[in-house]
Amino acid sequence: MSTFEIAGDDFVLDGEPFRILSGAIHYFRVHPDDWADRIRKARLMGLNTIETYVPWNAHEPHPGEWDVSGRLDLARFLRVVTDEGMYAIVRPGPYICAEWDNGGLPAWLFTDPEVGVRRSEPKFVAAVSAYLERVLAIVAPLQLGEGGPVILVQVENEYGAYGDDKEYLRILTDLTRASGIVVPLTTVDQPQDDMLENGSLPDLHKTASFGSRSVERLATLRRHQPTGPLMCSEFWDGWFDNWGAHHHTTPFDQTAADLEALLDAGASVNLYMFHGGTNFGFTNGANDKGVYQPIVTSYDYDAPLDEAGNPTAKYWAFREVLAKFVDLPDEVPPAATPAPSFTAPLTDAVPLLSVADRLGEWTWTDDLPTMDALGHYTGFAIYQTEIDVAEPAVLSIGEVRDRAHVLVGTAHVGTLDRDHHDHAITLAPSRGTLTLLVEDQGRVDYGPRIGEPKGLIGPATLDGEELSRWAVLPVGLESLEPVREAFAPLEKPGLAGPVFARGTFDLAEAADLFLDTSAWGKGVVWINGSNLGRYWTRGPQRTLFVPAAVVAAGANELIVLELDASPSTTITFVEAPSLGHTDF
Ligand code: GLA
Questions:
Q1: Does the CB atom of residue 158 touch ligand 1 within 6 A?
Q2: Distance 446 CA to ligand 1 centre (A)
Q3: pLDDT digits (tens, 9 = 90+) for 65-95
Q4: What is the mean pLDDT of residues 356-360?
Q5: In angstroms, what is the span from residue 304 Cα to ligand 1's centroid?
Q6: Residue 209 CB–ligand 1 contact under 6 Å
């Protein structure tokens, strides 16, 4: 039976000192058909371990529901890691940050305002206990000694950057042990004295997160973890992107030199990320340090393996560095080949508002409810009320989370954007139905705004008078069947949003594709019913990644929800991704 432990200054595997050379791959950001390919490419680069977070809110989208299907099959992912001859590190949170919606915490948990966030508040602890028991029941039998790949489990995530509730960390640690986890437990914190102090307990092995100045950062870590192996649990080899900003890249030779310095210092490492993947659907998080900044759909991260699983210059540079420390397999992964490039027309369309009734149930209420209060935790909601104004009037909303299209009747009169701190708009003299189509653009994943509700936050007033008699509809987009039934031939060029449109395209064989969205406005795309995520003129990303596994030889269906306006009704696939402009 294999053993893994901490002894002296080392991790020890089967009695021998062992250096962890790990790379992060989030199973929930990669199509399951691609898991083995990505994991194998990690081994071919010289890594011996795969690290993943576990996103609680994806596994439990509503209280009591538990989803481990498809992209969420953690047990299967860990078995693929074993099959590829690698070890695994699991970081179940409950908070994971990760540029993931709400940092992985389920939004439904916070509809009760008494529930604490990331602290030893009894209601939060009760929910976390149930979650951890469930996840760790998957992980425990896949620990190394049991024939699985798991050698480390992390408690919380960068907790010292958020709180200092040691009782909370004690409860999580005891729960983890009580759930049968026997491998060493770690914590990770940014290498600052207060964070390393607040984020851990004496019986947890402290590690650090950073992407440069390794020697200095390891010295800081050493002050707080005087014994045992040094480990950088998140070596930031790239960075994430926000809509409206530039695409982040780091020079591969500089990043490789930083990695070499870390390994020269004798440390173990987890590359964050080895392969970032995609924020499919509505899974992206957001930042807010005074300005709300949602994360883009691609989680390419400028990682060694790109979003489509192809090796980059960084991959080859890291492989050369790793060759100085370990024996590498002879095999190397193939270089990227161009994806099929072609166009197809959008042929059918239907305005969102004309199918709204088929996508959810209306609720009538005098008080303005949040989306969360309606049990709707992602995507879109429609708010309607009747207005009658003879003079230009000011519509004012307490706060828009996160973007509202304002329509009177079917006429689009403006958009309120949270990232611009918009909260008021002038309405021309009008009479009829006022509609606000509100998009949750992703919940904040870092800092004090975690757990805040989405939708319209009141009061909503018209010339100072509070609006009431609201009809509110959570827009259900899990099935597009009601939209398909309503499509009619598209008879004019251009898409006047908010509108669904559809087209089909033929493929000789399934292949990874890059959908060029640069001619469209803002919206969401599905191919064969699979939600590929959001696009937006603001960029930086201009293409959406389509994994080969969601298309097939023959006819394929594309549905787009265009919210704004698109002069183009053409579907365009291009040979290579365009993640946008960089700042150098
Ligand atoms: C921190 C978090 C990660 C991720 C990175 C930035 O290290 O622990 O989850 O958010 O920052 O990509």
A1: yes
A2: 9
A3: 999 999 999 999 999 999 999 999 999 999 9
A4: 97
A5: 17
A6: yes
State the closest ligand 1 atom to the C-alpha of 190, by its place in the atom list counted from 1: 7
- Which numeric CATH code is attached to 19-285+300-322? 3.20.20.80
User: What's the mean pLDDT in 561-570?
Assistant: 98
| 19-285+300-322 and 342-350+479-574, same CATH topology | no
- Among 60, 99, 156, 234, the active-site one is 234
Question: How many Å apart are CA 536 and CA 524, to the nearest integer?
Answer: 9
Atom nearest to 188 CA in ligand 1: 8
Element (H, E) at 272: strand 268-275
Domain locations in the chain as residue ranges: 19-285+300-322, 342-350+479-574, 360-475
Sequence-ordered list of residues with C-beta below 8 angstroms from that of 264, at least 6 positions apart, any chain:
none
Our answer on whether the CB atom of 154 is closer than 6 Å to any ligand 1 atom is: no
CA 235/CA 388 separation, integer angstroms: 58
Q: Which fold has domain 360-475?
A: Jelly Rolls (2.60.120)
DSSP H helical ranges for 120-251? 122-139, 166-178, 193-198, 214-224
pLDDT over 80 at 584, yes or no: no
> Ligand 1 centroid vs 263 CA: distance in angstroms?
21
Q: Please state the rounded mean pLDDT for residues 49-63.
A: 98
Distance 124 CA to ligand 1 centre (A): 23
Nearest alpha carbon, ligand 1 atom 10: 98
Superfamily (CATH H level) for 342-350+479-574: Galactose-binding domain-like (2.60.120.260)
pLDDT at 567 over 80: yes
pLDDT digits (tens, 9 = 90+) for 220-268: 999 999 999 999 999 999 999 999 999 999 999 999 999 999 999 999 9
234 in active site = yes
Does 270 sit in the ligand 1 pocket, CB within 6 Å? no
Among residues 158, 260, 439, 562, the one annotated as catalytic is: 158
pLDDT tens-digit series, residues 394-411: 999 999 999 999 999 999
Assess whether 307 carries a catalytic annotation.
no
Q: Which of 97, 195, 284 to mutate to test the pocket of ligand 1 (most atoms within 8 A of CB)?
A: 97
Q: Would you place residue 137 in the very low, low, confident or very high pLDDT band (cuts 50, 70, 90)?
A: very high
Query: How much distance in Å is there from the Cα of 321 to the middle of ligand 1?
Result: 24
Identify which of 440, 434, 433 has the alpha carbon closest to the alpha carbon of residue 477. Answer: 440
Q: 206 pLDDT band (50/70/90 cuts)? A: very high
Band of residue 583 on the pLDDT scale cut at 50, 70, 90: confident
Q: Write the DSSP assignment of 484-501 as a string of letters.
A: HHH-EE--SSSEESSEEE
**Helices assigned H by DSSP within 66-213:** 74-83, 122-139, 166-178, 193-198
3-state SS class at 470:
strand
What is residue 371's DSSP assignment? Answer: T
Residue whose token pair is 């239907």 = 350
